[in-house]
Amino acid sequence: MKIAILGGTGPEGGGLGLRWAAAGHQVIIGSRQMEKGQQAAAELQGRLPAAVAANLSGADNLSALDGADVAVLAVPYSGQERTLAGLEAALAGKLLLTVVVPLGEKAARVWRPPSGLAAAEEAARQLGEGARVVAAFQNISAHHLADPDHVVDCDVLICGDDRADKQTVIDLCAAAGMRGVDAGPLQNAGVVEGLTAVLIGINIRHKIKHAGIRITGI
Fold first, then answer.
1. If you average pLDDT over residues 51-77, what whole number do you get?
2. Cβ(10)–Cβ(77) under 8 Å?
């Protein structure tokens, strides 16, 4: 697939981009500035085998969406509304996979936006009727994503309202070396986003960097 990562210059978007490019997908690292997206892509290319480095390129966010099968929103929550503004038409009809997590001043305590909605629900509301938004990867540490050879020992909880879209994300999880688990409708995304703060607290208390979620019994 052709995957556009909006705000892909950060560790989460870059790590996922590395893994998907290594798996054979075409990945475009997007940024508000064309040059910044291209620079980030060039850096990531240097960490890939020569045979797959060409799968990764950079562009501005709007250009990255041209012809993309899937868009990935990988910005801090504070930049979510600003990043999506002006991209509504380009995202119409596209699957938007959001990895955004809203965190408060104390990152180890669960915080929700003043709207009372999950960040993923706010994104869907901003994009308007017909938006295809799926939330996933909120609980995956960017620390290990940057190493495509590292085995990520946790599951990816996936929330969305369309079963086919969630299956696409499950397939992308597998391509990135992880198991995706259907965690229900987009309304459940607030719980999954909140778990990130819980995991941050666990990391702090146990002096680790890789706490994650594993679903048993499946």
1. 97
2. no
